Amino acid sequence: MIEDQQEMVEVLALATEMRWPGVGFVTTRWGEKGVELAGTEAPDLIILDLGLPDTSGFEVLRRIRLFSDVPVIILSVRADPSDILKGLQLGADDYIVKPFRHQELLGRIDALTSHSYREAARPRLSCGRLYLDLPNRLLQRGGEAVPISATEADILHELARNAGYLVDSSSLAQAVWGEHYPGADESLQIYIKRLHAKIEADPGNPPLISNKPGVGYSMLDNAVTL
């Protein structure tokens, strides 16, 4: 956890240790140290504040993403949609606004840290010019490797698995996050926008992923399980 409010650190350390006895909980209030620990500790997940005393949390995230795809949850008082969008565009897997319910954070931690188990049980998929290998977190577009986060991979997998059919937003959110997820519709919109930029030849006119506003999303090509 990269957070400069000691009371917040102590509360969340206790909450996670009660939820997952024996969990290792490493903390720092400094962004520079957080980048270092992300490399040396190889954590399963990072909780990142944006208002750090030495540098911006956005800069910390940008530098971590240069060498690691570890799941990152941004935890911040900054609720402006532009900040949320920037965090997700820089590679955060989730964004939670303070104040928040502890159970909500623990649920999202649980969802993100269980990605690896769900991925291992899922097959590889080919969908049009896309190839998705979830166990190895590999996405190829026309043979070109494309960086992808755990959440993006789960969204793509669910859409490819149901290619040609409309997947309603609540079903897609449940498949990705595993439980009720406050703000799921807004989060899905941001993730789909990121995926458009990564996999579409023309993100402004997406032929692979389409959406029916207020209902859900669909992938147009036929998916083949490999």
List its traits.
single chain, 226 residues, alpha+beta, Rossmann fold, Arc Repressor Mutant, subunit A, 2 domains, five-stranded antiparallel beta sheet, three-stranded parallel beta sheet, 17% strand, globular
User: How many β-strand runs?
Assistant: 11
Spatial order of the strands forming the largest sheet: 7-6-5-4-11
Mean pLDDT: 84
Note the beta-strand portion.
Answer: 15-25%
Terminal CA distance reads 38 Å
Main sheet characteristics: 5 strands, antiparallel
Low-confidence segments, given as residue ranges, are: 116-121
The helix tally amounts to 9
Please state the structural category: alpha+beta
Determine the CATH superfamily of the largest domain.
Response regulator
CATH architecture annotation of the largest domain: 3-Layer(aba) Sandwich
Provide the gyration radius in Å.
Answer: 18 Å
CATH class category of the largest domain: Alpha Beta
How is this structure best described in words?
The structure is a single chain. The chain has 226 residues and is α+β, with helices and mostly antiparallel strands. The protein has 2 domains: 6-113, Response regulator (Rossmann fold), CATH 3.40.50; 121-225, Winged helix-like DNA-binding domain superfamily/Winged helix DNA-binding domain (Arc Repressor Mutant, subunit A, Orthogonal Bundle). The chain has helices spanning 6-19, 31-40, 57-64, 81-89, 102-113, 115-120, 150-161, 169-177, 184-199; strands spanning 46-48, 72-76, 94-97, 125-127, 130-133, 138-141, 144-146, 167-168, 209-212, 216-219, 223-225. It has a 5-stranded antiparallel sheet, with helices on one face. The longest helix has 16 residues, at 184-199. The protein is globular. The N and C termini lie far apart (38 Å). Residues 116-121 have low confidence and may be disordered.
